[in-house]
Amino acid sequence: MKVNCDNDGIEKISQIIEKGGVVVFPTDTVYGIGCNPYNVNSVNKIYEIKSRDKIKSLPVLAYSLDIVKEITIIDKFTEKIIKKYWPGPLTLILTLTDQKLKESLKLQNKIAVRIPDSKCTLKLLEKCKLLVGTSANISGNSSYTNPDECIKNIKNYDVFLNGGTITSKGESTIIEIENEKIKIIREGALKAEDIMI
User: Fold this and answer.
1) CB 139: neighbour CB atoms within 10 A?
2) Strands 2-4, 159-162: parallel, antiparallel or unpaired by DSSP?
3) Would strands 173-178 and 72-73 be described as parallel, antiparallel, or unpaired?
4) String of DSSP letters for the chain
5) Confidence of residue 80 (pLDDT cuts 50, 70, 90)
6) Residue 103 to residue 4: CA distance in whole angstroms
7) What is the pLDDT, as a whole number, of residue 197?
């Protein structure tokens, strides 16, 4: 099923997520695939769809900084970075405090999180608060910015939220902050030299 990124579409898709569905949706960088991160069966389905190795953890998307603070530890330095670059193409690896997420996502003590700069995704996140948000592709293959290509190549999800073609400079940049030092894990749309306080 395919729905548009309007109020009806968002309502439909949020209900499907609530019932354990797996959805494909646009972000500010590429098309993502996601589910309720607390639902183990849905999380496992994403691994199957992507043919992703289960030792690779899944990132989450959040609606707001307050929600991120409910599940992680954020120091003052990290908060400055967050306020400068979120919403946007920056994923942070943070210390995870939510025990249920540790169990459902099979995480130790860290989680990759970001707030995307996409009106469509944020409308969805306003309803869901948190979503698994990994690229909608087969592991090792390129990510999709074109909805038709994404639909053609990705199978077995429950609903596709169509946000049109995404214009972006690539996937999000992933960083980890330790002792106020920024470590680049993956350079993406944001370049290393751009990430400063």
Assistant:
1) 13
2) parallel
3) unpaired
4) -EEESSHHHHHHHHHHHHTT--EEEE-SSSEEEE--TT-HHHHHHHHHHHT--TTSPPPEEES-HHHHHHHEE--HHHHHHHHHH-SSSEEEEEEE--HHHHHHTT-SSEEEEE----HHHHHHHHHHSEEE-EESS-TTSPP--SHHHHHHH--S-SEEEE------SSSPEEEEEETTEEEEEE--SS-GGG---
5) very high
6) 33
7) 63
Q: How many other C-beta atoms can be found within 10 angstroms of the C-beta atom of residue 182? A: 16
Domains of the chain: 2-194 (3.90.870.10)
Give the largest Cα separation in the chain, rounded.
46
Q: How far is CA 81 from the centre of its chain?
A: 18
Cβ count near 114 (within 10 Å): 26
What would the pLDDT profile of 168-184 be if each residue is shown by its tens digit?
888 899 999 999 999 99
Length of the chain: 197
What tokens does 166 get?
A: 């995404």
Q: How far apart are CA 85 and CA 27, in angstroms?
A: 15
Q: How confident is the model at residue 170, as a pLDDT?
A: 84
Task: Report the candidate in 18, 24, 44, 38 with the shortest Cα–Cα distance to residue 135.
Answer: 24
pLDDT band (50, 70, 90) for residue 150: very high
Residues 136/154, Cβ–Cβ less than 8 Å:
yes
Cα separation values, 167 from 69, 158, 189, Å: 30, 25, 11
